[in-house]
Design goal:
about 80 residues, mainly alpha, about 40% helix, membrane, transmembrane helix, transmembrane
């Protein structure tokens, strides 16, 4: 593996002195962090949203329905059977 790395020419686009400079190291670090943040944001857009209120118990249901047909039960409650017709 060491022979392969030594066989590659360095400084094809930029001189070797620029590649080993302090400025280039800071620039490379910034680009790496920016790439990781962009990837994390892209993955966060793909993952479905989590609503934390769903995990906290509390009163979040209406006592009555507010639809067009308020007499229609939205949930079957014990003792409240609907009459056919």
């Amino acid at each position: 593996m060491t022979g392969f790395v030594q066989a590659l020419p360095t400084g094809i686009l930029l001189p070797t002195s620029v590649l080993h400079s302090h400025f280039f190291a800071i620039l490379a670090s910034f680009v790496a962090i920016n790439t990781v943040m962009y990837a994390a944001l892209a993955i966060a857009k793909i993952v479905p949203m989590v609503h934390f209120a769903d995990f906290v118990p509390g009163r979040r249901r209406r006592a009555e329905t507010r639809g067009i047909h308020p007499d229609a039960a939205t949930r079957e409650q014990p003792g409240t059977e609907r009459e056919p017709g």
